[in-house]
Design a protein that fits this description.
This is YCII-related domain-containing protein. By secondary structure, the chain is of the alpha+beta class. The protein has two helices and four strands. The protein is globular.
Length: 105
């Protein structure tokens, strides 16, 4: 698992437009959706106006770079700021939420 930090620092990012209004949005969104459908992107989304974080399952950092390099926004809208291997030890996804207001037993 890899934690990937990206930023909207590419030369074609228009800070006057929302994410969905950026050039090539449909192609980027379609590519990201495919990575989700393939189980590569586990979680992802913007942190703020500049930064995006992805949790990706891949064989290596090189594989992450290759996959993100195929994104239509690669280097034009988004740039990779960092890729860190991440050992997941706690994972509550897929568990039913704890109901009620009491303590866990």
């Amino acid at each position: 698992m890899f934690l990937v930090a990206l930023s909207h620092s590419g030369p074609r990012w228009d800070f006057g437009r929302p994410m969905e209004g950026q050039s090539r949005w449909a192609e980027h969104a379609s590519y990201m959706d495919r990575l989700v459908d393939d189980g590569v992107i586990v979680l992802g989304g913007p942190l703020d106006e500049l930064r995006v974080v992805l949790v990706m399952e891949a064989e290596s950092e090189l594989a992450v770079r290759e996959l993100l390099g195929r994104d239509p926004w690669s280097e034009t809208h988004l740039r990779i700021d960092g890729i860190d291997a991440w050992t997941i030890r706690l994972d509550g996804r897929g568990r039913p939420p704890h109901g009620g207001g009491g303590h866990r037993s």
